[in-house]
Design goal:
3 helices, 82 residues, two-stranded antiparallel ribbon, alpha+beta, single chain
């Protein structure tokens, strides 16, 4: 288990173990999310392009064509005008 200490200025240094496991580098950002049970979840905000590969893949579904995507955007824009 890794442990960090908060300074009087509210700062902390993430232990190397944590930085390595999350793949963090200087300048990366973290999101702090509180779960319904009060548990704190820390997630890296900085994603590399390679990590997005396959994010939208749905097994058994064909990819939408450019025309289908544009029609969906247009339909959403019309709904938003109300």
């Amino acid at each position: 288990m890794a442990t960090a200490t908060i300074t009087s200025k509210g700062q902390m240094t993430l232990p190397k173990e944590v930085r390595d496991r999350l793949g963090l580098h200087p300048g990366d950002k973290l999101d702090f999310i509180f779960g319904a049970d009060g548990q704190l979840i820390v997630k890296p905000r900085t994603l590399h392009v390679e990590q997005l590969f396959g994010l939208l893949y749905r097994k058994g579904e064909k990819a939408a064509t450019l025309e289908e995507i544009e029609a969906g955007i247009a339909a959403g824009a019309v709904k938003g005008e109300r």
